[in-house]
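Example record used in the benchmark description.
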Amino acid sequence: MLSLILNVVYVLVAIAMIALILLQQGKGAQAGSGFGSGASGTVFGARGAANFLSKTTRWLAIAFFGITLLMAWLFVHGNQKQVTTGSSIMATQSAAPAPAAKTAPASGIPQAPSQAPAQNVPQAPANAQGNAPAGSQTH
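Model output (structure tokens):
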């Protein structure tokens, strides 16, 4: 349940960071141009939107990295508890004997012979040098 809540907050913080970073103006742009020329002084104070957006982005970045480290720590320590309390899969398997070799059913299916019949293979001539094919060269 905790990991689900952390994941939802993590995604929301990431989306908020993306939105705030895209709203910020570059160094050469005017501070109030994103919100209208005169509105930035009344909504965000005398300094304009740049200070508010940069501070909010900083705190969201701190929260983002903090949640990342917390989720990594929970993942590592959560897996260690499962490994120490659980048993391995191999230990739970019983030592069952190997299955015996199956024999073919005697229902009229022909069986292959146990030994291959001997074939008459001609022997190579003793003088292989003199019987070379016409296209080969010997040196």
